[in-house]
């Protein structure tokens, strides 16, 4: 009986992670690297920033410069009938946007195992418009009709000079 209970606990933990931002640092706790699938700080299924409260900027970017955003698809929800995507966007007006896309969409893919963790480094150009408090958002829209919460959001609080 205890063996089955432990198995259920592990399964619940594995089912709770989907998208994490490493650089710039996402809202919430600092993330360990590497981490296993099911990391709770990566489970944010609520638009636009996973119900995480905005804070002070954690990074200040130079306007017009390139920047490599590093994130992880921590749990793959690929759905063949309606394949999803990931993207990176910025808002000058807080969590409610509007969000301006900074990257092309990154197509979801068949990882052949939901617990696959895939790291991405996507180069974006930092906009030339300065701001003292902006929101950089990475989202994973899985379009998976079989999931109760199929889409995932992470945000980082940034500034641009």
From TrEMBL:
<protein>
    <recommendedName>
        <fullName>Chitin-binding type-4 domain-containing protein</fullName>
    </recommendedName>
</protein>
<feature type="domain" description="Chitin-binding type-4">
    <location>
        <begin position="56"/>
        <end position="158"/>
    </location>
</feature>
<feature type="signal peptide">
    <location>
        <begin position="1"/>
        <end position="17"/>
    </location>
</feature>
<dbReference type="Pfam" id="PF03067">
    <property type="entry name" value="LPMO_10"/>
</dbReference>
<dbReference type="InterPro" id="IPR004302">
    <property type="entry name" value="Cellulose/chitin-bd_N"/>
</dbReference>
<keyword id="KW-0732">Signal</keyword>
